[in-house]
Amino acid sequence: MNRSDVLIIGAGPTGLVLALWLSKLGVRARIIDKTSAPGTTSRALAVQARTLELYRQLDLSETIVRNGHRVAATNFWVNGKPLAQLPLKRIGEGLTPYAFVEIFPQDEHERLLIERLEDYGITVERDTTLEIFEESSDGLTAHLRLPNGEQEICQACYLAGCDGARSVVRKSLDTGFPGGTYQQVFYVADVKASGPAMNGELHLDLDEADFLAVFPLAGAGHARLIGTVRDERADRAETLQFSDVSRRAIEHLKVHIEDVHWFSTYRVHHRVAEHFRSGRAFLLGDAAHVHSPAGGQGMNTGIGDAINLAWKLAAVLSGGAEASLLDSYETERIAFARRLVSTTDKVFSFVTAEGRLADLLRMRVAPFLIPKMASFEASREFLFRTVSQVTLNYRGMPLSAGAAGHVHGGDRLPWAHEGEGDNYEPLRQPCWQVHVYGDTSDEMIAWCAEHHLPLHVFDWRPAFETAGLARNGFYLLRPDTYVAIAENSADPKVVERYFHDHGIRPYFNCT
User: Fold this and answer.
1) Residues 149, 271 contacting (CB under 8 angstroms)
2) What is the DSSP letter of 475?
3) Are strands 256-272 and 289-290 parallel, antiparallel or unpaired?
């Protein structure tokens, strides 16, 4: 009987990233998908800065940046004219190594992840579906339907449902998926076109006409259109062709279509599962939460789910932590998913609302306010921090403790760059580690050496103070680079007590 440590259902970005991180950490992962081949079309485009930071652990970031497209600005159009612009070139400067908006379409993204996974000897098993699974005290038994129609019974220690909004895993767990569906029908099309909106920047129509956004893709004249389908056409969305789409917004943005590579329609949902875990089964990505495309958050949030769960599963499976560590996955990720759905719902509702008041706000008020807000560095920084997910934190949660400088337990470690190096270089290794900015005690040095816990001591520099880091304290960092402890002292007993209280054994640390 085939046995794996973790059986992953679904080979979208979430499932592939989970398989990659587990493989990196020495866990035997098996990944299946019901489709016969990777997707050639997709809606997800943006790879946020926080995702790129985490992708350094698998040397993915540079490849994505090299092959993707940086968006220089967002332009807001009213009555056929660009009335406001939000510059994006340096919007997150000083906050992250990836202080820009990166476009890298999901289909290309998946192909890259699949290639890297094959380097670990893992191949996605296609045309394979999960039928049922049963849990026992020491694992799971799953019944799979293979491409030839035969059934296979396999075993795993844990199961990860990364199988999308119609998740078989979620339905098998009988977990509720409360929320709703927006009334609008949307279309998405990859096109070759010309016109002023094909300048490599993002363009958004704010008119009372059909909503339309033009997202730039790599290559001159290539873009993705995302727009609404209104009136009686929405009732026959499943049979619509691009020729049926209203031209009002397209003409307002002066987009001259030369070729349509692909076209599809869809409805947008906003839902969060009642639970992200039941026993040995977990829900991730769209199986756990779906939300509007506002801000390009969906795929990145699923990837965050995968990385959060991967190191915890690896620790438990290796004997480096008690099984209770897995309880923190739902606690940390469900809170973020609920906040995200609420936030994107408000933005999405504003952009797509109909009626005289909504038109007034979009066409008169927004074009006036956007340039004013864009002129303030604080406004631009707030926008970038929110959209890029660098403000995502686990403050006040069970694995987070203390505060030092402006940094709290549960925060993303602030990035500090000065000269040639930065404090993120050690984070390429997905392991527990201690950072000290300034000086530390001999006791801390000795304790970390004895317990094989990497200790990185950085000579104090002004850049660290600017980033909000405390001098001569320490930060215990989790394998996913979030701060576990922020502490002003140099006492290793604080670290020892943390590991003891959470059932974590640092000598199983990944090296």
Assistant:
1) no
2) E
3) antiparallel
Q: How far apart are CA 146 and CA 125, in angstroms?
A: 9
Give the chain's domains with CATH numbers: 3-34+49-57+104-177+273-344 (3.50.50.60), 401-508 (3.40.30.120)
Token duo for residue 40: 């050639």
- pTM value is 0.93
Start-to-end CA span in the chain (Å): 32
Question: For residue 4, what pLDDT band results from cuts at 50, 70 and 90?
Answer: very high
146: three-class secondary structure by DSSP: coil
What's the 3-state SS for 361-401? HHHHHHHHHHHHHHCCHHHHHHHHHHHHCCCCCCCCCCCCE
Residue 192, classified by CB atoms within 10 Å of its CB into exposed (0-12), middle (13-18) or buried (19+), is middle
CB under 8 Å to 236, separation ≥6 — which residues? none
pLDDT band of residue 405 (cuts 50, 70, 90) is very high
Per-residue b or e along 85-121, where b marks 16 or more CB atoms closer than 10 Å to that residue's CB: bbebeebbeebbebbbbbbbbbebbbebbbebbeeee
Task: State the Cα angle at 157 between 152 and 159, rounded to 5°.
Answer: 70
